[in-house]
Amino acid sequence: MLIQSNAVQNRKGENMQAVRDIIHVDSNRISHDLPVEFSNMTVELIVLPFDQDKERSDSPVREGKSMRGALKKYANPTRIVHEKDAWRGAVRNKYEAD
C-alpha cells in the first residue's frame, strides 16, 4: 500500500488536500480511512487501475545521464585562474562604486 497525502492546486489556483492510495482489491469492495480534515465534507472518489510500469516512469527520481560537464564547452580557460577571487572582486566593485 502506498499512501500519499499532500496539497494540490485546483483550477482556481487554491490549495486543496488530496490523498492517493495504491491498494490491492480482493473483492468488489474497499474501505478507506481518510485524514480528519475530510470529516463532514463531500469528497470525490476516483478509482483507476494501477499500472506499475507507468508509475516507475513518472517517478520524480530519474536515473540516467548525468549533467556533469554539460557546460564544459562554454568554459573560457583564460578566465579559470581568476575564478578564485571573482566573487570577492564583483562584490567589491559593486559596493565601492556606491
A few lines on this structure:
The protein is α+β, with helices and mostly antiparallel strands and 98 residues long.
Describe the structure.
This protein is 20% helix and 16% strand. The protein is of the alpha+beta class and 98 residues long. A hairpin with a 5-residue loop joins strand 1 and strand 2.
Question: Can you summarize the main beta sheet?
Answer: 2 strands, antiparallel
- The radius of gyration computed from the alpha-carbon positions, rounded to a whole number of angstroms, is 26 Å
The whole-number mean of residue pLDDT values reads 78
The overall number of domains is 1
Helix fraction, binned, reads 10-25%
Looking at how many chains there are and whether they match, the oligomeric state comes to single chain
Percent strand equals: 15-25%
N- to C-terminal distance: 61 Å
Main structural class: alpha+beta
Order of helices and strands: EEHH
Task: Output the strand order for the largest sheet.
Answer: 1-2
Number of continuous helical runs? 2
Shape: elongated
Please provide the count of β strands: 2
Low-confidence stretches: none
